[in-house]
C-alpha cells in the first residue's frame, strides 16, 4: 500500500518499506475541499504519486495517469492516448506527463565523456539494458537506489575500456528478490566520476 497524506492540498509520499507498495493502492486523508483525498476507483497498480496545488496525480503500472481534485483549469483532464507515461508532475494549476519515445536512432557519445546513453525498455517488467560510454579504461560499478535513497543493488562491472558498453538489470535487489513496482535510480560509478538516470519498474 502506498500511503499519502493530504494537508491543504499537499500530497506527501511516505516511505515505509517494500511492504507498503505491494498492491499499489493509495491512502489519502486531510483537507478534502476539492475531493483531492477521494482516490478514484480502481485504487490499485499505482507506481508513483505526486500533487499540484489542489489536485493529485497517480502513475499506474500500465503507463497511464490518473488525476483527481480541483479541475477548474482542466488540470485533471488527461489527454487522449493516456499511455506510455514514465513520470508525472503537478504544477499549481497544470499537469505534466513524460513519455518515453523510441526514435529508432542509435545514440552517439562524444569522446571523453562518461555517460549513460540509454536505458531500454523503460519502463520494464523483467529486465532492462543500460548502455553507457566510458572515455577510458576504468573500474565501473552499478548501483540502484529506491526513491527513499536506499541502496538496493550493487554490481561490479569490472574494468571498462574506452567505448560503448551494455549491462542488464533484472529488477531484483541484492538478495535476488523482485523489487516492487515504482521508480528507481541507476547510478554508474567510475574512479573519476558518476552518472545517474531514472528507471521505472512495472509488473
Features:
203 residues, mainly beta, Immunoglobulin-like, four-stranded antiparallel β-sheet, three-stranded mixed β-sheet, disordered N terminus
Describe the fold and architecture.
With 203 residues, this protein is an all-beta fold. Helices cover 0% and strands 47% of the residues. The chain has 2 domains: 2-99, no CATH class; 115-201, Immunoglobulin-like, CATH 2.60.40.4070. It is built from no helices and 15 strands. The strands form 5 sheets. A 4-stranded antiparallel sheet has the order 12-11-14-15, with no helix packed on it. A 3-stranded mixed sheet has the order 2-1-3, with no helix packed on it. The chain has a 3-stranded antiparallel sheet with strand order 4-5-6, with no helix packed on it. The relative contact order is 0.15.
Please give the radius of gyration in angstroms: 19 Å
**Average of pLDDT:** 82
How would you sum up the global shape? elongated
> Which spans have pLDDT < 50 for at least 5 consecutive residues?
1-21
Structural class: mainly beta
Written as H for each helix and E for each strand, in order along the chain, the element string is EEEEEEEEEEEEEEE
How large a portion of the residues is in β-strands, by DSSP E?
over 45%
Question: How are the strands of the largest sheet arranged?
Answer: 12-11-14-15
Largest sheet features: 4 strands, antiparallel
Number of helices: 0
| Terminal-residue CA separation | 15 Å
Compile the SSE list and pairings.
Blueprint: E1 2-7, E2 10-13, E3 26-27, E4 46-51, E5 55-60, E6 65-69, E7 85-90, E8 95-99, E9 115-120, E10 128-134, E11 138-146, E12 151-160, E13 163-169, E14 182-189, E15 194-201
Amino acid at each position: 500500500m502506498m500511503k499519502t497524506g493530504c494537508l491543504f492540498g499537499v500530497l506527501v509520499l511516505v516511505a515505509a518499506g517494500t511492504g507498503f507498495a505491494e498492491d499499489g493502492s493509495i491512502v489519502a486523508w486531510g483537507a478534502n475541499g476539492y475531493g483531492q483525498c477521494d482516490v478514484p476507483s480502481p485504487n490499485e497498480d499505482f507506481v508513483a504519486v505526486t500533487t499540484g496545488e489542489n489536485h493529485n496525480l497517480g502513475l499506474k503500472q500500465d503507463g497511464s495517469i490518473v488525476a483527481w481534485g480541483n479541475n477548474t483549469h482542466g488540470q485533471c483532464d488527461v489527454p487522449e492516448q493516456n499511455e506510455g507515461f514514465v513520470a508525472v508532475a503537478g504544477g499549481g494549476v497544470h499537469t505534466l506527463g513524460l513519455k518515453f519515445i523510441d526514435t529508432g536512432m542509435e545514440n552517439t557519445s562524444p569522446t571523453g565523456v562518461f555517460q549513460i546513453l540509454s536505458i531500454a525498455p523503460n519502463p520494464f517488467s523483467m529486465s532492462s539494458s543500460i548502455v553507457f560510454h566510458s572515455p577510458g579504461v576504468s573500474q565501473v560499478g552499478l548501483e540502484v537506489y529506491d526513491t527513499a535513497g536506499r541502496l538496493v543493488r550493487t554490481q561490479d562491472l569490472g574494468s571498462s575500456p574506452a567505448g560503448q558498453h551494455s549491462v542488464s538489470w533484472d529488477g531484483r535487489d541484492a538478495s535476488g528478490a523482485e523489487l516492487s513496482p515504482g521508480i528507481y535510480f541507476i547510478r554508474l560509478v567510475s574512479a573519476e566520476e558518476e552518472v545517474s538516470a531514472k528507471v521505472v519498474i512495472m509488473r
